[in-house]
Amino acid sequence: MCAPLAPMLLIAATAVSAAGSVMSGIQAKQQGNYEAAVAKANAKAADEQARDAIDRGKIEQQQHWRQVADTKGAQQAALAAGNVDTSFGSARSLAEDTAMIGNEDANALYHNTYNEVRGFDISASNYRAQGQAKKMEGNAGLTRGIFGAATTILGGATQFSKMKANMNAGGNGWSAM
To answer: What is the full DSSP assignment across 5-59?
Structure first.
């Protein structure tokens, strides 16, 4: 009675194990796709942060140049109120120095914005690479699951064949299976 049941249990165990391998592979693929989607969303957020940094940098530049213009205007008004000619001498040097310092500050603002944007661009690029890697991991997991199932099926078939040969050698009449 046990002899005919053994092959059926072997077939069932092989099928369950193979199905488990395939399901594990499918789950790995789904996990990889999920993590790739998260990385894609993070890359999009980093891109948006970079655009925001550019916009803020432009506003800071505008505000800076307005302040420089206000300072130069106030300097010229004060000098003119004291009957000082602003076209030569110390008054002219003051205006040139104010412009020079304004340019230096504007360059610093530009470089700060550039570095901030560059950081966000690098993050976005890293997230995209991470997403691609996660997709590849998922695909590899699915492939492992399929190959694991195939290996299980081949191993089960080998065991089934040996079992059948042993039963036939014992003369129990199982050869019809």
So the answer is: HHHHHHHHHHHHHHHHHHHHHHHHHHHHHHHHHHHHHHHHHHHHHHHHHHHHHHH
CA angle 171–174–176, rounded 5-degree value: 130
CA distance 49 to 29: 30
pTM for the model stands at: 0.73
**End-to-end alpha-carbon separation of the chain, Å?**
15
**In sequence order, what are the residues at sequence separation of 6 or more whose Cβ sits closer than 8 angstroms to the Cβ of residue 112?**
57
Per-residue pLDDT in tens (0 to 9) along the chain, 177 residues: 455 788 888 899 999 999 999 999 999 999 999 999 999 999 999 999 999 999 999 999 999 999 999 999 999 999 989 998 888 899 899 999 999 999 999 999 999 999 999 999 999 999 999 999 999 999 999 999 999 999 999 999 999 888 888 878 775 545 544
> 113, 54 in Cβ contact below 8 A?
yes
Instruction: Give the single-character DSSP code of 1.
Output: -
Whole-number Å distance between alpha carbons of 32 and 128: 13
What letter would DSSP give residue 171?
A: T
